[in-house]
Amino acid sequence: MGVGVALFENRPPRVAKMKSFEAMHDATFRECLQRPLYLFARGRGRSCRKEIWVFFIVLSIVEQGLSNVCGGGSWALIPLVFDLIMVVPEYALEVRRLHDLLLPGWLTLIPYGLMVIATIGLVKSRMLTIGGGPFLLAVIPLLVSMVIQLVIMCTPSRYRRPSFDNGAIGAGVNLSGMTRPWND
User: Fold this and answer.
1) Are 30 and 9 in contact (CB under 8 A)?
2) Residue 1 contacts by C-beta under 8 Å, 6 or more apart in sequence?
3) Which of 26, 48, 24, 27 is nearest to 157 (CA)?
4) How far apart are the first and last CA of the chain?
5) I need a labelling partner for 143 at 20 to 30 A (CA). Which of 99, 110, 123, 168 fits?
């Protein structure tokens, strides 16, 4: 069954599987949206590309819609509060995605740190001058951050399920069940 067919399949949600630590390669659209909220602040486990793409695309559409509807005045706090709440599941989802790539989850701090640096640089450059050298230097960390996040979202999974032969763990698989990404 193709990925697109599984994404739009109509079946009851598998809550127990959504709360597990394994990536859900056969997740439906609804499960891709619910799983990061079930695992709100949990960075343990793995998430596949489909989970992160569906969640981030829908989240960006909702954020844009909220910004358009609640754009001015005191209503502008609604999109801000929504963004602040959703940072936690976004970050946890990215950590689980890095685990699926057999990388440590703390590497997710790099793009977020670059975004903070870019924001500070953009604010300072707006105070100094409009459209000059400081402004362009502040945009570079933002672009690097976006490229890093796209690489995280597009790279295929490196995790392989352990293979068992007569109850013994197969070659190249450690006791945690993760394969080494390299060949000896």
Assistant:
1) no
2) 26
3) 48
4) 33
5) 99
Q: Which two tokens stand for residue 18?
A: 């959504």
Structure confidence by residue, pLDDT tens digits, 75-127: 888 888 999 999 999 999 999 999 999 999 999 999 989 988 888 887 776 66
Q: Which residues contact 170 (CB under 8 A, 6 or more apart)?
A: 162, 163, 164
Tell me the torsion sign for CA atoms 159, 52, 147, 108: negative
Q: What angle do CA 7, 10, 11 make, to 5 degrees?
A: 105
109 CB-side CA count, 13 A: 4
Q: Which residues of the chain are under the pLDDT cut of 70?
A: 1-5, 125-134, 161-184
